[in-house]
Amino acid sequence: MGRDTGKDGKDWRLGVLAIVFALALWQFVAAVIIRYPFILPAPTDVLSAFASLLQKGEILLDLQASLVHFAIGLGMALLVGIPLGIAMGWNRRLESLFDPLIEILRPIPPLAWIPFAIIWFGLTSFSGGFIIFVGSVFPVIINTYSGFRSVPRVFVEAARMLGCTKSLDLIRYIAFPAALPSVAAGIRVATGVGWMCLVAAELFGVSNYGLGQKLWFFYSIHQMDSVVVYMIILGLIGLAFDMIFRYYIDRYFLKWRTGEVA
Amino acid sequence: MGRLEIRDLNQSFAKDDGSRLVVLDHVTFDVEDKEFVCILGSSGCGKTTLLRLIAGLDTAQAGSIILDGEEIRGTNPKVGMVFQEYSLFPWRTVIDNIAFGLEMQGMAKDDRYRIAERYLNLVNLTQFRDSYPSELSGGMRQRVAVARALALDPVLLLMDEPFGALDAQTRNMLQKELLEIQEETKKTIIFITHSVDEAVYLSDRIIVLTPRPGRICRMFPINLPRPRDRTSPEFAKLRREVLELINLNCSFQ
User: Fold this and answer.
1) Chain A contacts of B55, Cβ < 8 Å?
2) Residue A207: what pLDDT?
3) Could you say which residues of chain A have pLDDT below 50?
């Protein structure tokens, strides 16, 4: 393994090279072949659009508005999804009770809820948050539930032998930590799905700011270079969420899994 | 104290065709205080079922299990258990695994760590105090499991083929260590195995179960002095006697 490879054996320089190459290709196609920024703005156009957007200073307000929508949606998804998943994973009767209901609701695309979101919550941050909630609650429920389902029986029995006999204690000290990798994976998927619902959630005008809202606004005034700026910001923030999971959550909360075959 | 009386224990499970599979059939025996008893039987003879009943993890259909004059109903801090499969909590470090039972009793951190460290020392794993189970070998994990069960100071220690998954050398080493631990802590131990060699090496008495339904076939007192030398002629002779008796009478090899 060479000096410049990470511990997983990947050479980061190749990745950088690919990004640089893609940018160059994009610039070439946009500036030399197409030469029509409405169809495809070049990276240089995007860069100057980014500079002027920064000067106007609205990007931070958009970011703030989007994060509020996102926090409402994901927060509610965790608040509802984790307890429900635990209840279903721990109790067979509750599983039988909720499982069919969830299986019927789950395939409905989150965006199909937009009309009711507007009727129920009006054009507020909460109706945007509701769409994100619908998108992210199911991965949280399903992963929490299946994590609790697959807690090895021997852990529960060992705990009972050691005086941990109450259901609540068994959940807190045994089942929850044992299921945590699965719960964390569910939250990670939920974060990704929720972020993807964001653009659509902001499309119907729940706020005057927001990354998705601005994306649609600049499209309507045909400023495609600004549209690309917002696309990239959306992508980078989605990536940042994922990095938080990969490097922070896994390292600090799940460090006991190192060396284990997951 | 750790005197166990088992009276007329019966257990059966419902089968798919509606009939019942009898697993334990009128099992009766006593275990004296500080005695090391091995229960020997082929797989499926009900020895794990028997141990789970004594542990209080399951309830028998009929019969009684009495420990020091009190009937066992449900799990009980006086009974400790070491499982066949790896049962350490992988999200807890070694010391927090050993201290788990004390934590459940509400003991303060310093106190429970002090006790846990004593048992960590007893199983010779002091330098792995803050390791996670995934960083330990199979033999080390079972030693931690023994320490974890002992930390609550039970009078009776149940062991369900705890060394079954280990290689021969590790297994022999752990058997030797277990005898030293018993010497030091004076527990009554019921140890399940299907290895005649292991049973002869460890126990004061061997109880052989017949396969399906599990009945007591024979009891052998093992009067060899300790430490036992498994290469000695007396050891080999005793092992052969046990094997022959089993083959003749207990239809299990």
Assistant:
1) 161
2) 82
3) 1-2, 261-262
Of A160, A173, A255, the CB nearest to B75: A160
Per-residue pLDDT, B252: 52
pTM of structure? 0.85
Instruction: Determine, for residues B132 and A258 on separate chains, whether the beta-carbon distance falls below 8 Å.
Output: yes
What pLDDT does residue B2 have?
81
Helix boundaries (H) for A204-249? 211-220, 224-243
Q: A17: which 2 tokens?
A: 């090279």
Kindly give the pairing relationship between strand B4-14 and strand B20-31. antiparallel
The Cα–Cα gap between B200 and B221 comes to 9
Angstrom distance (rounded) from CA B192 to CA B41:
8
Burial class of residue A68 in the structure, from the number of CB atoms within 10 Å of its CB (0-12 exposed, 13-18 middle, 19+ buried): middle
Contact check, Cβ <8 Å, A161/B134: no
Kindly state the helix (H) or strand (E) to which residue B160 belongs, with its residue range. strand B156-160
pLDDT in tens, A39-75: 999 999 999 999 999 898 889 999 999 999 999 999 9
User: B-chain residues within 8 Å CB-CB of A164?
Assistant: 100-101, 104
Choose among B74, B89, B105: nearest Cβ to A155: B89
Q: Exposed, middle or buried by CB within 10 Å (0-12, 13-18, 19+), for A60?
A: exposed
Look at B55 and A165 and tell me if their CB atoms are within 8 Å. no
Segments of chain B scoring below 70 in pLDDT:
251-253
Quote the minimal CA–CA distance from A250 to chain B in Å.
Answer: 12
Q: How much is the ipTM here?
A: 0.91
3 state DSSP class of A220: helix
